[in-house]
Amino acid sequence: MKVLMKPIEMIAWFPKEGVPIPLRYRITTSDDTNHVVKVHKVVYKEEEKLAGNRMILYRCESIINNRQKIYELKYEIDSCKWFLFKI
Amino acid sequence: MEEKIIFHIDVNSAYLSWEAVYRLQHGEKIDLRKIPSIVGGDESKRHGIVLAKSIPAKEYGILTGESVYSARQKCPNLTIVPPNYEIYMKASNSMMDLLREYSPYVQRYSIDEAFIDYSCHRENHYLDVAYQIKERIKDELGFTVNIGIGPNKLLAKMASDLKKPDRVHTLFYHEIKDKMWPLPVEKLFMVGSKTKRKLNGRGIFTIGELAQLDPDYIYSWLKKPGLLIWNYANGRENSPVKNSSPPVKSIGNSTTTSFDVDNKREGHMFLLAISEMVGMRIRELDLMGDVISLSLKNHQFYSYSHQKKLDIPTDSTNTIYNISKKLFDEMWTGEPIRRFSISISGLCSNDFCQLSLLEEYKERDKALDRTIDRIRYKYGYNSLIRSCFLHSGIKPIIGGVVAEEDYPMMSSIL
């Protein structure tokens, strides 16, 4: 997997337990087209607080261009931003 | 009485480590700690000094506090990143939270240093605990620390400075002779460049040589501060680990201007901008002060200062400004100025104050200051500014590193 750290637009589900679950996101590629990706499955998630900055890391699975892909998303709690971290 | 166990936790190249970890978390591929790099101020604004350096940068002989320009000459491929104090506060706060899990006595000594009193918790061996803290900070927060362990705060602090990075050191009384005395005298806490010169001038080069002097001799020569460092050299110090910060003795702000100020009007504007900050801070702490001092640094880096004692204590921005303006007019000889600082001391509580028959008491000014403060805290510092700053290129409120947060400053009081 390669580190991308690209900001994305996200639709997430905030369950009662409190940790948001990513459902569907939109990514703008370099040629300015938008792609919507449905998150098929969250394989695991973990919280990190490197340098005191809390982020939740999600390892996810999706079908992208008819191929099953594993990648990582990050949610930055302080700024409420979502990123495509690694793919 | 059993010996106390004090830990001193010191973040290794704090600003740089935090910057590096934050950048790695945000997808940066290069670890700043592994390449020659510094956190440096903005040269175009003349804040260009080295705030922190990586260990590879240290190998080029780069020193904290020197100019970015000379650092770049020592190492042409140096990576320079700007400081980001909000990240550093966050990192520092999360470290303090982690430390508080180990003892109720945690003293934040500066943004990147803390003391812990671990005397009461004898169920776990202190060395195991120190290693555990060090490893947890590395794993969870991503940066490394040095931990010094000693029977008092001074020795703990000296121990954490022994060998860096990512280490635990002890310095108990029986170890002073081997571990502390061979060090050069300027390594001792409170011995700065001027004291070093004095001591070196009389043939004292190591901490051990200082420790073995006759206290009467050192008192007759360096007076009370001399006795203090003599006691420190012998490892004697007994201040408690304080949870709260020490009482404020003075409040001041300063700025290095981005251009040399050579006219009265601009000088006064800088004074007003700093007075706004000093006034806001003193009112926030519910204090008043009756000594106002102004210090200037000219284009040849020569500093001089004047101060004035007031008849009645004040917390008013206008009074602080007017007094510093008067001081400025008295002391300024017309040469270009690069740095202004204003501070107010002689502090007392603002509960009540003795008024003077000879001076006017401006109750309306007080109400105005309070109202302005409230508006600024609610809607941001720039929500309400004085009109003279419009289109002037001078910021209307100057001073401090993190405008919004309480930034723990360095202190010479243990």
Report on the architecture of this protein:
The complex is a heterodimer of chains A (87) and B (414). By secondary structure, chain A is mainly beta. Chain A has one domain (3-86). In chain A, 0% of the residues lie in helices and 67% in strands. In chain A, strands 3-2-1-7-6-5-4 form a seven-stranded antiparallel β-sheet, with no helix packed on it. In chain A, a hairpin with a 7-residue loop joins β1 (3-13) and β2 (21-28). Chain B is built from 13 helices and twelve strands. The A-B interface holds A 3-5, 48-53, 55, 78, 83, 85 and B 18, 21-22, 24-27, 29, 87, 90-95, 140-143.
Largest sheet of chain B: 5 strands, mixed
Spatial sequence of strands, sheet with the most strands of chain A? 3-2-1-7-6-5-4
Q: How many H/I helical runs of chain A?
A: 0
Distance between the termini of chain A: 5 Å
| Coarse shape of chain A | globular
Q: Which ranges of chain B are low-confidence, i.e. pLDDT below 50, for 5 or more consecutive residues?
A: none
Gross morphology of chain B is globular
Structural class from helices and strands of chain A? mainly beta
CATH superfamily of the largest domain in chain B: DNA polymerase, Y-family, little finger domain
